[in-house]
Fold this protein.
Amino acid sequence: MVANGVPAVRFEDVSRLFGDVRAVDRVSFDVADGEFFSMLGPSGSGKTTCLRLIAGFEQPSSGHVQVHGINVEGVPPYERDVNTVFQDYALFPHMSVGENVEYGLMIRKVPKPERKKRAEEMLDLVKLSGLYARKPSQLSGGQRQRVALARALINHPRVLLLDEPLGALDLKLRESMQAELKSIQRQIGITFVYVTHDQGEALAMSDRLAVFNHGRIEQIGSPAEVYDHPKSVFVAGFVGQTNLIERELALRFGGTAGTYAIRPERIRIEPLTAPLSPGLAAVEGRIGGITYLGSTSRVLVAVDGGEIVVVETNLEGGTAMPDRQPGTPVRLVVDRKHIQSVAA
Ligand code: ATP
């Protein structure tokens, strides 16, 4: 995925300070050519500032930003081979959809027939064929987002930067647009750098993701690496649900003192009478309560010692069975490979 070994984007020890705020604090990472790379983190963690550093709307206070192997300090945004899609779309309301899409070509003085042809190709790509003459006000939110995408892609940038582009859409539309964005990215094969605070979105779309916290990257990896092997308490809690196991329970689950993360869906609930298989960690407790969630149920189990462990499981037959009532003694069983040691 790295053309000639040169990453599409490289951050080398980059910081960006605003007064005393370290918005980006000594961040280093590479984005491979053609990769779908997400920057995930809570509000204020520095991801948008990183995106703006790539776009050229911000300059680093220290360190270096490279795009395709070239240091871009001092290179203005329009001379970088990147383009940005913003959450608020930033469409021109007085122009038609087609004119919005071909705007970048107009600036570059591409003749009208050629512009129109390319705008129509882009509208096909984002599944808006036939809407060339409409005004943005006559489109739905999802359609406007596609126009913004088509407009950003028409200049064939090698890197597309996307800042929470689906943030304004409702959940169903967001999920279908996630799949579409991913498929468009595969089809055109360019690098996407995607900012989001939505962990589900980052897991669903990315080849790799970086988890930001307080201007720093806590972890970079594939969705499965980050989800299954979170390195810190922060990552374990921010990316998905988790049980943080400490103190006495850590000794029983993990074997040694420390802090461990165990995903609720990795834990099985068994009756005390079931034979215990070797290689599994087990603790005993009592059912505290069950919340039926549809495809799964969330079971709270009070383990001996008083701590609560959350288990997510598919309870066929619902919550009514006698062995699922509050107070029922149970055994919690988990494969040791799903007990992840995490740094505080
Ligand atoms: P969000 O998801 O809310 O956009 P973010 O993770 O993208 O958050 P940034 O927008 O990068 O975070 O902001 C990181 C920090 O830098 C925040 O504390 C923010 O207030 C601060 N910051 C960003 N831009 C500026 C600026 N132009 N002037 C002063 N402080 C800024």
Remarks:
- The mean pLDDT is 90.
